[in-house]
Amino acid sequence: MIKTINKQLLLLLLLLLLLLLLLLLLLLLLLLLLPLLLLLLLLLLLLLLLLLLLLLLLLLLLLQLPLLQLLLLLLLLLLLLLLLLLLLLLLLLLLLLLLLILLLLLLLLLLLLLLLLLLLLLLLLLLLLLLLLLVLLQLLLLLLLR
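The structure assignment produced for this chain is given below.
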């Protein structure tokens, strides 16, 4: 019986260590998520700036200054290409962010499961101790009756 309790305690300790490791991993993931969000914000700002520049170039093109028209058209095309590239990068970043969030959720689920297992183990340990106490009381009662 005592060996069983020792094994249970060892298992409990192991589970606690695993829980701590999971919490550390969760914290690391959160720290990784923060700069990614900042980068996303910066990219959005850059996108907005590019759109403004694009609008300005379109306006200049509509004014139709003959000498500058070809140059403006070229610049406009270049800007559109840059905008497309930036949008692609933004999409990629959003996908990465989504993946990280999913990983975080999975980790949280694992943590919850581990906590449940820990609780179950504690309950089992308590039950074993109670049983041991009952056996000891029975032995004491037997000794007293003799």
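Interim note for the steering committee: Residues 66-145 form the longest helix (80 residues). The chain is about 95% helix and 0% strand.
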